[in-house]
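Q: I'm teaching a short session on how sequence maps to structure, and I want students to see two examples side by side rather than one. Could you give me a first protein with its sequence written out and its structure tokens following it? Keep the formatting plain so it prints cleanly on a handout.
A: Of course. Example one:
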Amino acid sequence: MIEVKNLGLQLAQKEIFSGLNFKVQRGEKIGVIGGEGSGKSSLLDIMAGRLIQTEGEVKISGEVLTVAGNISADFSELRMAEMSAIDKLKRTLRGLRDDEIVLLLDEPTKNLDSTGIEWLINFLLERKNLTTVIVSNDRYFLKSTCEKTIQLGKFEVDPMKIICTDRFPRVEPDDFTVPSVLDVRRLWKDRSGETLFKHVNFTIRRGQKVALVGENDLGKSRLVKTLMLAWQDKNSNGGADRGTIKFADNVRLAYMSRVYSSAAARVELENLQKYDVNFLLLDNPTSCLDLPTIEALEKALVDFSGTIIFAEEDRAFINTIANRIIDVAPTGTVDRISTYEEFLANETVRQQLKEKYNLK
């Protein structure tokens, strides 16, 4: 189906990869992983005929379809501009001829929430004859769909350390004797007539690591920024339309904003390691990171003994770090002290989410 022999690529006199050999049989799903600049997307470009390799050959039996960032090259951005990420993806993949298509997916889960990712996983698993090569940093997605993975380049980065101001002992997230560090009451935020979040109420205790999840991507990011602004402005409501936000007096906070390039992400990570803090606010920290850097950040956050609130979509990342989950729906929140896997599997949570998202 796909045969790659002694494939090599040089760009601007720099070797990207060399001596690459592998085969993909009809219906097989394989993942491609590696660090930044290792040639993952370039490999897909070569397979699609958009880039000429320096050496070796690629033989593909079938028509190639590329989907990059949930948008197919076969559809104009103008026609799809008003569609959600999952709707764009569904439209792109509609009517595929499984026996004739070779599907190349470049970071397909990047803009999908957990519901969209599950849809894509089921789509691929149901199509036994659809040959697929997937470049992704989403470990949960790769584990759920791929029979094997191909590693490109070096798979290591320098260790990362975020220093906590106070040497806190490890505590259980449901230990209510631990002091609270943040209290949020009746928080509500609209923008241009659209409700981003409302009825947000929670008390965060020292040492809790809280993941903000759910389909309301704008609401999660805005909530993180609202908390940051409230801390900066000494316990205002952070620009929310209603409600109160109260941080403990001893909170020393660092904020990592959402970025849209790997270079900007590296700057944010460097800044995160410069100061002694005891509270982290992170807005989609993995969105522009490669897998080795995600794993380095993951370890640093596990080792951090302070408090963390982060908005994120990476399921493996959330499940490794978080001990409390808050789903931020436009109509309210669903809050549970648990891992993400336990949160998603809980029947009471599922019913609450249906009510919050007005699902039948």
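Q: Perfect. Now a second example for contrast.
A: Example two:
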Amino acid sequence: MVDIKFNVDTEKCIKCGKCAQDCIAKIIQMNNNNIPEISIYDENKCIKCQHCLAICPTGAISILGKNPKDSQPCDNFPQAEQMLSLIKSRRSIRQYKNENLDSETIQRLKDMLKYVPTGCNHHSLHFSIIEDKEVMDRFRNRTNNKIKKMFLSAQKNNIVIKKFARYQKAFLDGEDVIFRGAPHMVVVSTPINAPCANVDPIIALSYLELYAQSLGVGTLWCGFAQLCVKLFPDLAEFLEIPDGYKPVYVMLFGPTDTKYTRTIQPDEYQISTIKGNADVDDISLFKKIKRYFWNSIR
């Protein structure tokens, strides 16, 4: 039997029912005294989202051993224009100082990660973080040497060689094509059976990037590093990625002198305002096949 430690301080409870209304699993019920409760037979359905703790206006509810007094009040949000400015000014950084971030900043980044959302609250992401530039140099050299050896062995059909073909001279000349001199790196991995395995790590890194930018830390989404971590088993072992997990994406980060003085002026994306006028009840078989193909191609 699961014990989720759902407790209600009846002296604080104002019987508003917000916890029951907001319960994702629909297991909180109001009893005859209009006090929220969870049947012991329903406790195993709890997805541990803590919405009940977060929504209670008087702090009457505790769950999973969490005391509402230890939570931060939700009353200190950045202004909308400040948030939009942060998003607009985000840039990929490819120039880093050859030094470590201070330990306090790294710890702040790490502490933030537990708040990133995941599908079905499947709180099981794994973050491999290289916090020391000397360790990063070891990883960098190991990876770059692998690529160099492949070029020198002329494995023309190798997927890695094809990916890096236009950078062959740069690799052989010793340029840090993949890691751009970054002193730090984070790799997000997820259990292969997670309900949103390919999405959760991208959400996590998106949160990390914006928070890092607010701290003055440069970041770079690194598809080249992602490819290497996926294809070379020893790199995954170096990063201590657990068995049963797959690495999904990589972000480089570190201190930088790069300062952008203005935002870019991007082209608009396609945006459809759906009015429900399209006739989709009788689409042709050809259109269905095309849609299946597009939906499954990657």
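Q: What should students look for in example two?
A: Point them to this: The chain is about 35% helix and 10% strand. Also worth mentioning: The first helix runs from residue 18 to 22.
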